[in-house]
Specification:
Blueprint (H helix, E strand, L loop, with lengths): L33 H9 L4 H22 L10 H13 L2 H33 L1 H15 L3 H12 L4 H24 L3 H9 L4 H35 L8 H10 L3 H29 L9
Helix pairs in contact: 3-11, 4-5, 4-7, 4-9, 4-10, 6-7, 7-9, 9-11, 10-11
Length: about 300
């Protein structure tokens, strides 16, 4: 009597009993093949393309509303009219000179304000005594509106470049000060104790423990400071300015050129978006050790 060798129940033909692996060409119930998953990951759109969808959609809707008459030109010029105004200011050299002046003011004011904000944040965050002494007057100054400071700045610094740079520096100082001081206070004491037990030198303690601990929140303050720098600049350039984007907007308003006026405002927005993108790139590179949300 002959015996028939039967494959074990649940084991596909050609499969391995020892490992339970399926035969070549079969699909597991756990999910799609690895090649399909890898292909799906490759077709994922880059982040910049996803972030550009909503602004482009708004521009398309804006242009459609202008062409249909839903958005009259006297209220808001169409995107094509604003592009024509941009080309006009580019051809006559107005755009280049205005950008150069405003960028110089913003860079100088940002450098001063960032330095002051970081130094004050480190001092106040590291010492409870300095927190009680320095923080109250800073909080009082922080709550004063910018427009209320313009007459004082003109009386103190005149009507030249100094009051404009001072306003930008003042606006930049507080976000970095608040974020830096809060970040230093939130450093895990166990990390500092571990560094002390391991006998880290002061330089190594700063580089290995303190800087990585405070860097995420300091970069948040940097992004906020860059946004406020452009907001402060547009306020400063509306008063006694003879050059820059604010002066371009003021002259456009006086001559009823709403297309140039809106173009100047969009330039401020694009400059703010560009500087924010630079900080985001810096954040991704500096915080590569931190897991990215959604992954």
């Amino acid at each position: 009597m002959t015996t028939v060798d039967a494959a074990p129940v649940g084991l596909p033909a050609g499969g391995s009993l020892a490992t339970g692996t399926p035969a070549a060409g079969t699909r597991t119930a756990a999910g799609p093949p690895r090649r399909a998953v890898a292909a799906a990951r490759r077709v994922r759109a880059p982040a910049w393309a996803l972030r550009a969808i909503s602004p482009l959609a708004l521009v398309v809707l804006w242009q459609a509303g202008s062409r249909s008459g839903t958005i009259p030109d006297r209220i808001l010029p169409s995107p094509t009219a604003i592009l024509a105004a941009a080309a006009e200011t580019y051809r006559d050299g107005t755009l280049a000179s205005a950008l150069a002046v405003s960028a110089g003011r913003a860079a100088t004011g940002f450098a001063l304000g960032a330095t002051v904000g970081l130094v004050l944040g480190v001092l106040v965050g590291s010492s409870r005594l300095l927190d009680h002494v320095i923080d109250p007057p800073l909080q009082m100054i922080r709550t004063i509106p910018f427009l209320g400071l313009i007459p004082l700045f003109i009386a103190w610094f005149g009507i030249g470049e100094t009051p404009k740079i001072a306003m930008v520096a003042l606006g930049v100082t507080f976000p970095l000060y608040l974020n830096t001081s809060a970040a230093i206070r939130q450093i895990d004491p166990l990390l500092l104790e571990t560094a002390q037990v391991l006998r880290f030198s002061p330089a190594r303690r700063i580089g290995v423990v303190i800087v990585p601990s405070i860097l995420p929140q300091v970069l948040v303050g940097l992004r906020q400071s860059l946004g406020i720098a452009w907001l402060s600049l547009i306020v400063a350039e509306q008063v006694n300015a003879d050059a820059g984007l604010g002066y371009l907007i003021t002259t456009a308003d006086q001559s009823l050129r709403r297309d140039i006026l809106v173009f100047g405002l969009l330039l401020y927005a694009l400059l703010g978006l560009g500087t924010d993108a630079v900080v985001r790139l810096l954040e991704r590179r500096a915080l590569r050790w931190r897991p990215e949300p959604g992954r």
